[in-house]
Design goal:
6 strands, 152 residues, alpha/beta, globular
């Protein structure tokens, strides 16, 4: 099983505790973890994995332009998309931006989390969404391709 993670660059203490609860369940599952090199959720997942002696595949951004960050997210999803039982665990902290939708080249309008979700949906990955605040999911994100798991 391959599990990729995406989420915001800033987490509150309450949000960290919610993410940690889920990671404690996942650490028991034999799986390969995949995450970016950003701060926030990425850093928390990396630290949690290292503290629990779990190897994690880290995807580094290769530049400073917006498209470099999108490329990193797509590279992570592409790395697991062709394997069965690959899942994206997504922790959005805001509504999906207008214009963002599932496609080969999604526009997250500044939200790397939603860009990653949109690209994972395009690639057909199972997506588990754990909203960090109350949000409405976009219409293009429907069952059974994804599952919303509320943490409220």
């Amino acid at each position: 099983m391959n599990i990729a993670f995406t989420g915001p660059r800033n987490l509150t203490q309450a949000q960290i505790e919610l993410v940690e609860t889920e990671l404690r369940h996942l650490i028991k599952t034999p799986s390969d973890w995949h995450v970016g090199d950003a701060k926030g959720l990425d850093l928390f997942v990396r630290s949690f994995a290292y503290n629990h002696h779990k190897q994690v595949n880290v995807y580094e951004v290769a530049g400073h332009e917006r498209y470099h960050f999108a490329e990193r997210s797509k590279r992570m999803i592409d790395a697991i998309a062709n394997y069965p039982d690959s899942i994206l665990y997504a922790y959005p902290n805001k509504e999906c931006p207008v214009g963002c939708r599932s496609s080969k080249n999604p526009n997250g309008n500044g939200s790397g989390t939603w860009l990653t979700i949109a690209y994972a949906a395009y690639r057909g990955l199972e997506i588990k969404i754990f909203p960090l605040t109350e949000i409405k999911l976009p219409a293009w994100l429907e069952e059974p391709a994804s599952i919303q798991l509320s943490i409220f």
